[in-house]
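To assess whether ligand presence alters the predicted conformation, the chain was also submitted together with 3,4-dihydroxyphenylalanine. Input:
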Amino acid sequence: MESKVKELTAEVGGVSITNPEDAEQFRLKYLSKKGILAVLFDEFKTLAPEERKVVGKQLNELKQLAEQKFAQAKDLSSNNGSSAKESIDHSLPSEPVDLGSRHPISLVRTSIVDIFNKIGFTISEGPEIEDDWHNFGALNFPDDHPARDMQDTFFVESDYAEKWLLRTHTSSVQVRVMKNQKPPIRTISPGRVYRNETISARAHCQFHQVEGLYVDEGVSFADLKQTLYYFVHEMFGEDIKIRFRPSFFPFTEPSAEMDITCIICEGKGCPVCKQSGWVEILGCGMVHPKVLENCGIDSNKYTGYAFGMGIERITMLRYQIKDLRLFFENDMRFLSQFKSVL
Ligand code: DAH
């Protein structure tokens, strides 16, 4: 028994108690009614009187050591507790919570969506990994169109016969909507698109677009113009002027590009508008009859208009941002400037 007590004395001496859980474990193990010390004292009672003299002293010392250890541990935690209590001043204002801010692209996307929602446009989405047919074929791009070239399109390696790619525009969502819904269709499709472009202040390999589509009986170019006038005035203000220039897209006929008064110089001419006073903000046109037919819509009965704009371009104009790369760098000094626009 003597050696057992010695061993235990060394063990208890080596225990380190750093938190209340440890202290309680310690108490249960050594000091509780069924703990090691209680068992030893029971055993002690059965010893011969000569042995009791020697072991009794050691046993008492062990008990003292254990109690001391436990008391110190309790002191430690109650000290912590009382000093923590004293340091809390309930009248102090709390630490400010940094909520972050919305990304400018999200802010502008939301504004665009709100503006079109007000005149009855729904929102549609499509996948970012597309097949060649939805991105090009159905939209009347000939097989040898240069946009399909490796220069512009990121192709995705696959074992399927169909070519897969990262969509180069949100016009692919038009195709999905027209295939799945019957006219009247009035929808916008915001989303991310990808092109194999060299990254610069004016171009990036990923950016965002919003596509618009309206298909019904008797939809005309006048409806398209009126909708875009409404959009520009809501987005940039009533004073902004608009002009349409004839253009070409395989999926619209006739096609146009739309310019607005340069917001930066208010039409006077500056480097952003290349001294012209105008900046291009979108492409548009009447949906090509072939595209309607490719999507199962009777082109004798229905007509439609479509438009597509870059969200980065609109955001740059709205907040006078000169370098498109800022949108993708997640620099807090740039992003935190949009806090007040929450
Ligand atoms: N998809 C075109 C692009 O990415 C933009 C566009 C032009 C969309 C004309 C349209 C449209 O719906 O009618 O450059």
